[in-house]
Amino acid sequence: MKINQTPRINAVNPYQKQSDLQAGAASRKRKTDEVQISAEAQEMLSSSRVSSTDRSQLIDNLKQSVSSGTYHVESGKIAEKLLPFLKN
Known about the structure:
One of its GO terms (biological process) is negative regulation of DNA-templated transcription. It comes from Paenibacillus albus. This is Negative regulator of flagellin synthesis. Pfam families: FlgM. The chain is mostly helical and about 90 residues long. The chain has a domain at about 50-85. It is about 65% helix and about 0% strand. It is elongated and about 105 Å long. The mean pLDDT is about 80.
């Protein structure tokens, strides 16, 4: 039996699609990540910077009271705050 090379009509090249994708990917630019901060978040950030001196004074006072042994922890308040988390 003799098989002649018949002209291939609409022949499918399985590698053509993959090479087209690679060529297209090489020509595209890489996308970069972008972060947008809402106006509310910017306002909160600026307000926290303003009160940073007050916060640092509070932290210094807490450090002094802890180091001197005069800091008192109320166990009832801690239990009240932990209770909702423990119920879930």
